Structure formats: structure tokens, C-alpha cells
Amino acid sequence: MKKSTNAKFNKQLSNLVDKLNANSKFIEQKRSTIEYGPSNKAEVAKFLQDIEWDKTPLGAYVATQRAVKEAKLKVLRESLAAAEEEEKNKKDDGSDDEELDAEDMEVDSEDEE
Predict the structure, then answer these.
(1) pTM, whole model, 2 decimals?
(2) From which domain of life does this come (predicted)?
(3) Which long-range contacts (CB under 8 A, 24 or more apart) does 39-46 make?
(4) Sign of the torsion angle spanned by Cα atoms 12, 18, 21, 26
(5) Neighbouring C-alpha atoms within 13 Å toward the C-beta of 48
(6) Could you write out the three-class secondary structure of the chain?
């Protein structure tokens, strides 16, 4: 992290490390309240099942990142669709101009005769 000069990447990586640390503390807090050992496989399997993944610090971060990514993709798709529509309109308008030029040429050639 210290070798990179990309400030945006460093900030994102630092934020991820913070979320991982927060998630670690969250799990440690949950573990402190249990009264069974790792040999009790049934209880271990149930550990944190009652908590939705996006309610954990790391899960909330992932959900936020997915929402941001989806919002960026939506804007990109809309932009591409608008650009394609504009290009289509330009082609439609351009073909009309060519047709008019061809008609003008025909009219001009008739006038010369």
C-alpha cells in the first residue's frame, strides 16, 4: 500500500482493510457470547446464521460497492444508448441530405437540357 502512488487506489484499499478489521471485531464480539466449543459442530454451523450477511460491517461494504457499481453501469448504459440514438439520428438525417443532393442534381441536369 505504501509503494503505490495511486491515491484513489490507496484510499480504497485502506477502506477495505478498515472494513476487514471492523468485521473481525464484530465476529469476535459474537464469539464472546457463545458457550460452546469448536467440537460442537451443530452449534458452529448455526453461528451467525441468524444475521444476514449484509448486516455485518464487511457485508454492508460489499453491498454498498455493488450498488455503486450498478449505478455506474446504469449511467454508462444510458450514455451508450443515447450515443447510439444520436448516431442513428445523424445517419437518418444524413441520408436525407444525400437524397436531396441527388434530386438537386437531377433537377439541375434537366434545367441544362
Answers:
(1) 0.61
(2) Eukaryota
(3) none
(4) negative
(5) 14
(6) CCCCCCHHHHHHHHHHHHHHHHHHHHHHHHHHCCCCCCCCHHHHHHCCCCCCHHHCHHHHHHHHHHHHHHHHHHHHHHHHHHHHHHHHHHHHHHHHHHHHHHHHHHHHHHHHC
For residue range 72-105, list pLDDT tens digits in order: 999 999 999 999 999 888 888 765 445 555 555 5
CA distance 50 to 32: 16
**CA of 24: how far to CAs of 9, 14, 35, 36, in Å?**
22, 15, 19, 19
